[in-house]
Amino acid sequence: MLNTTQKKLAFFQNVVLVAAADGELSAAESEFLLQLGNKLGLQPEEVMPIADNLGVLSFVMPAEGLQRTLELQTLVQMMLQDGEIDAREYGLCQEYAHRIGYGKGILDDMVSQLAGGPPNPYPNPPTVS
């Protein structure tokens, strides 16, 4: 699925957008990004333009359905890295889920399961105030 550098960079960019959404990059989030970049075989010079242009970047949607689902799972994992679900990070995950055709219920179920809990049929997501 991630068979080109372009696809790998697009995936990495999406994860960086969630990581940066709350304006803070925790040590756990930084480590997650480092591990992901290494796993994808990305070089620092390839990912620097992402960091340098954060303010103007948006999600890059993969074409393949399975890749979209796996990417959403990774975005949720990034959101959970610092132990808090920030409303801005949640909002981006919700936007991504919506763009790939998933409802809020599917996202909330994924959040609950990836956080180590059971499926949650009655979620109370954070709100931006």
Folded structure, characterized:
The structure is a single chain. Helices cover about 60% and strands about 0% of the residues. The protein contains six helices and no strands. It has helices at about 5-20, 25-40, 45-50, 65-80, 85-100, 105-115. Helix 1 packs antiparallel against helix 2 (about 25-40) and helix 4 packs across helix 6. The mean pLDDT is about 85.
Radius of gyration from the CA trace?
Answer: 14 Å
Helix content: 55-70%
Count of extended strands: 0
Oligomerization state: single chain
Tell me, rounded to a whole number, the average pLDDT: 87
Spans of at least 5 consecutive residues whose pLDDT stays below 50 are: none
Q: Main beta sheet, described?
A: none
General form: globular
Helix- and strand-based class?
Answer: mainly alpha
Helix-strand topology string: HHHHHH
Distance between the termini: 38 Å
Number of helices: 6
Which terms would index this structure?
129 residues; mainly alpha; 6 helices; 61% helix
Summarize the structure.
The protein is an all-alpha fold and 129 residues long.
How is the topology of this model organized?
Blueprint: H1 5-20, H2 27-40, H3 44-52, H4 65-80, H5 87-99, H6 104-114
Helix pairs in contact: 1-2, 1-3, 1-4, 1-5, 4-5, 4-6
